[in-house]
Amino acid sequence: MGHRHAQVIDETFDQQAARTTLPAFNAEIARKLGEIAVNIASRRGLPVALSIVQPQGAIFFCALEGSSADNAQWIRRKQNTVFHFGKSSLEVGAMFAREDRLLASHGLSTSDFTLFGGGVPLRVANAGIVGAMSVSGLDDVADHELVIEALCWHLGIPHVDAVLSRPVATTKRQGMEETRQ
């Protein structure tokens, strides 16, 4: 049964990735996407920080009221995870939990990478991953969903809370018990 559940999670992540692929990406699109996420979070009073980066550096960053400097460190680790694995940090965390693995098994440090959600690859059709968008300040599933919701708004497609039913396996994630990423 657990294996079947894992397949459903993978299909959901694959479906999200396909649905949220961008037709193009540049600094102007990053700004618009960032502003959408800021507007969503501001209207809900969410204490988050968010960032959009390309492999060569940051394009957009905003820290809303109630967020902290610690959120910037979580964002950095989430982005590193996205670029290293080519998947959302939530998907990587689910994969590691399912396989009972730790970041150390890949020679990676928890100071630079994380298995918590909130980092999502930005994909462009026929170009692959061109950047990452990360949110920190809520629980990891909510961080992930805020990025997905912003992408859906930008693309003009319905937002589906597809991964919210996924059980969060924090005990398998490097023994970390943080609730705000």
CATH topology: Beta-Lactamase
Number of domains: 1
Q: At the fourth CATH level, what is the homologous superfamily?
A: Haem-degrading domain
- What structural class do the secondary elements suggest? alpha+beta
Helix content: 40-55%
Query: So what's the oligomer here?
Result: single chain
Q: In order across it, which strands form the biggest sheet?
A: 2-1-4-3
What's the end-to-end separation, in Å?
29 Å
The number of helices is 5
Please provide the count of β strands: 4
What gross morphology would you assign? globular
Following the backbone from N to C, one meets helices and strands in this order, namely HHEEHHEEH
Q: Work out the radius of gyration.
A: 15 Å
Sheet with the most strands? 4 strands, antiparallel
Q: Low-confidence stretches at least 5 residues in length (pLDDT < 50)?
A: 1-8, 164-181
Protein name: Heme-degrading domain-containing protein
Organism: Paraburkholderia silviterrae
Pfam families: HbpS-like
